[in-house]
Structure formats: C-alpha cells, structure tokens
Design goal:
By secondary structure, the chain is α/β, with parallel strands linked by helices. The chain has three domains: 122 residues, no CATH class; 113 residues, 3-Layer(aba) Sandwich (Rossmann fold); 192 residues, no CATH class. It has 13 helices and ten strands. It has a six-stranded mixed β-sheet. Strands 7-8 form a two-stranded antiparallel ribbon. A two-stranded parallel ribbon has the order 9-10. A hairpin with a 2-residue loop joins β5 and β6. The protein is flat and about 70 Å long. GO terms for molecular function: phosphotransferase activity, for other substituted phosphate groups. Belongs to the bacterial sugar transferase family. It holds the Pfam family Bac_transf.
Length: 450
C-alpha cells in the first residue's frame, strides 16, 4: 500500500490560508488608518474571512475545477467580506467612509485572487511541462462516456490525470475485470473509472469491495446522469459527469481543519493538565514493579496505511511477542500496575503525544499492530477502508462494546462496520459524544478492559 500521488492540497491550502490572512491584515494597517490600531478588528477580519471562505468553498479548488467557478467563489467572497466590513467599522468604530472600505476590500480580494489564479495556472503548466502532480487512472467499459472521458484525459494533461489503460468489456467480462484488478495492483494505479451502463449490480459490488480493500479511489461514469440508489457526489470533468462513490466528510478542508484544531487543543489540555503530574507517579510505580522502560512503543498502521510509533504506558513485563500477540484475559505478561492502568485506560494516555504530532486523532478507528493489520486486510472485507482517516485513541466501535481483544470474527467485522459508519458520518458533535461515552465507560468499568 502507498499514499496516493498528487495530493499537493495538504500543503498548499494551509499556505493559502496563512498568505491570505497576512494580506488582509497588512493592507488593513496601511489602508484603513484609524482602524490599524484596533487589535479586535484584525481578529474580526481574520475570523470572518475564514468563516465566509468555508461557506462559499473559497479554498475548495481541485484539478478539475473550472476557472469560471473560481471567479464565482471570488465574487461571493468579495461581496460578503465587504458587507461584514461595513457592518463592523460603521457600528463599532464610527469609521465608515465608504471609499476607504471599498478600496481596502477590493485591493485585498484582487491581490488574493491574483495569487490564487496564478497558483491554479502554474500547477496546470507544471503538469504539462514536467509531468508532475498527476494521478494514474484506468477506465473500464464500452459506453460513449468512456471514450469521452478517455479523450478528455488525453487532451487535457493540465488536469493532472494520466490515463494508463482502457479495459473493454465486449467479451469475457469476468476475466477482463480480473485483469483490471491485477493491472491496478501491479502498476500502482491511483483511480478507477467505471461505466455504470456496462456493469451489473454484482460487478459494481466487486469493484466496491476491491477498491475498499486496496485503498484505491473508485468513480463511476453514469449515462444521462441517472439517479442512483446510493447518495453519491457528482463532479464534472469538463462537461462529463463523474460520480464519487464514498463521501467522507473529513476530505473537506474545513472539516479537516476543525478536527485538527480540536485534536491539538484537547491533547494540550490532557498533556499539561493530566500527564504533567500523572507521568512521574506512574513512572515510579512501573519501574518499581518490573525492570524496563516506562513507555511502550509499537508500530501500527495509520492514515493511508502509513506506519507510525504508537506510545503507551508499559503495562506488561518486557517480552518478545508483544508485537505479535494481543493481550488476553488473565494474561500472565501483565503486571499488577499494568492491570490497573489498563482497566482504567490510563495506559493509552501517552497517545495524546501521537495526536499532537499528527499521527493520530482523539477520535477515530483504533489502530492495530502491523502484523494484525496485514492479517485482517486479507480476511476481513472492507477492513482497509478504516485507513482513509487518521486512527484514534478511542472510537465509535470502542464505545459500542468492541474494544480490546478480538476474540472472534464477529468482533472485528462489527468493529469495521462501526469504523466505516464513523468516517462516512463524521461530525464534531459525534466526536464529543464518543469522548463522553469513553470517559463514562472508563469510570463505570468495562468487561473487556483488561
């Protein structure tokens, strides 16, 4: 498994936020004179700019986004930002000279727009000239939309899609689909586009299962934009409708930023408010009972299947099978102190450092040790879908009775179902509910907390 290529937005969008905020605040100092001494005003324009941007999707610009759509976002941002500036300056500062406000907002938006459009066109040029920032794709089917999309990819290299192969389904459909799966795996293809008119429901399910289990992006080509049974998202490549199968709220930059800000704030509270005094106490007790380090480090799989070091307070005596075998009930490896901190979930607290550095989130699918991930990926359907989001210290499955040891197939299958529900229905309120239930269960005590 590997991280998908061409995902520059993870770095570009935070940079765009910072640059735009810098522009509007610096211009406020030079163009609005009296207001330049008002620190509250700088806070207001920064917050209002971001809120407006989230509501008009100002930063939601993708490789297939048309320039006219970007101009539409700019116009909405300009109008709303102008209205809020008039309201604030006129009401709070008795400073509402229309010409100054319009001059400030217009110059700010023009400068930001120039940067935004320059990056947009420079990226297009970069893809054409250097062949960088691209995603490899295959198309499968025979319909008219297949040839249209094929021509689109070949005629528009500036969009950053490299069409590697088209699989025709004129004959031996089953073997052609299998050949497609093998090709996608061997050539490390990023995205698969399927013509729905050429596939049965059974074929669609095969593609869904394959892409879910192998962390590939699956999109469909509908004919006449037919209404589908699932709630799918439509995008347009030129004038060709393309359907995205799975909608993940945390793919949106705004939601990702909200969750990351919450993770940082919550982890800092725990680190300074709890771990700062609890760590020395637990370190003394752990070291007193058995030799070995205070912290236990284990390789686990996170976002996009990447491995990272997951930290815990050591609850077992050092042993050679710690990375291979899960803890079971009455496990002789667990120390007396370890049994207590596992029962109360205190052994998990060092993972807030994982959250702070960005390997984990406070809430998300629980990460498994690498050896178990490889095993479950082969035997449990859709297990790999969990890796589309960051793993968490706690999760929806854990608050519904599926924490700790996996005793049978039912445990891991239901855990995966809860994890997929979580990533498809994420909200900050759901995170808060899960955190509350985790604390409540820890205080009440759980049967599988051992």
């Amino acid at each position: 498994m590997r991280k998908q290529t061409g995902r520059y937005s993870g770095y570009l969008r935070p940079f765009s936020y910072l640059l735009d905020l810098m522009i509007i605040n610096v211009l406020a100092v030079f163009l609005l004179l009296a207001s330049s001494t008002e620190y509250y005003y700088h806070g207001f324009i920064s917050v209002s700019w971001i809120i407006i941007a989230w509501n008009v999707d100002f930063y939601e610009v993708y490789r297939y986004t048309k320039a006219i759509e970007i101009l539409g976002k700019i116009l909405k941002q300009y109008l709303l930002f102008t209205v809020l500036n008039f309201a604030y300056l006129g009401f709070f500062l008795d400073f509402a000279i229309p010409s100054q406000i319009i001059k400030y907002v217009t110059l700010s938006v023009l400068l930001i727009s120039a940067v935004k459009l320059s990056i947009y066109y420079l990226l297009k040029e970069f893809r054409v000239v250097y062949g960088g920032n691209f995603r490899t794709v295959v198309i499968i089917g025979n319909s008219k939309s297949v040839s249209q999309l094929s021509d689109f990819f070949n005629d528009n290299p500036d969009y950053g899609y490299k069409l590697v192969k088209v699989f025709n389904l004129d004959h031996e459909k089953k073997s052609q689909i299998e050949s497609c799966f093998d090709f996608v795996q061997n050539d490390k293809i990023d995205e698969i586009y399927c013509s729905l008119s050429d596939l049965t429901n059974e074929d669609v399910n095969r593609f869904v299962d394959f892409t879910d289990n192998n962390l590939k992006v699956l999109k469909f080509l509908p004919d006449n934009k037919e209404i589908l049974s699932r709630n799918m998202k439509f995008d347009y490549y030129g004038y060709i409708p393309v359907v995205s199968l799975r909608h993940i709220p945390l793919d949106k930059t705004a939601n990702k930023a909200i969750k990351r800000a919450f993770d940082i704030l919550f982890s800092l509270i725990v680190i300074f408010g709890v771990l700062s005094w609890l760590t020395p106490i637990l370190a003394f007790l752990i070291k007193k009972e058995s030799k070995g380090p205070v912290f236990f480090k284990q390789r686990r799989n996170g976002l996009n299947y990447h491995e990272f070091d997951c930290y815990k307070f050591r609850s077992m005596r050092p042993n050679e099978i710690a990375d291979l075998e899960q803890v079971s009930k009455n496990d002789p490896r667990i120390t007396k102190v370890g049994r207590f901190i596992r029962k109360t979930s205190m052994d998990e607290l060092p993972q807030f450092f994982n959250v702070l550095i960005g390997d984990m989130s406070v809430v998300g699918p629980r990460p498994h040790m690498v050896s178990h991930t490889e095993m479950y990926a082969k035997s449990v359907d859709k297990f790999m879908v969990r890796h589309f989001v960051k793993p968490g210290i706690t999760g929806l499955a854990q608050t519904n009775g599926y924490r700790g040891e996996v005793e049978n197939n039912k445990d891991i299958i239901n855990r995966v179902k809860y994890d997929i529900f979580y990533l498809e229905n994420w909200s900050l309120l759901l995170d808060l509910k899960i955190i509350f239930m985790t604390v409540y269960n820890a205080i009440r005590g759980e049967e599988k907390a051992y």
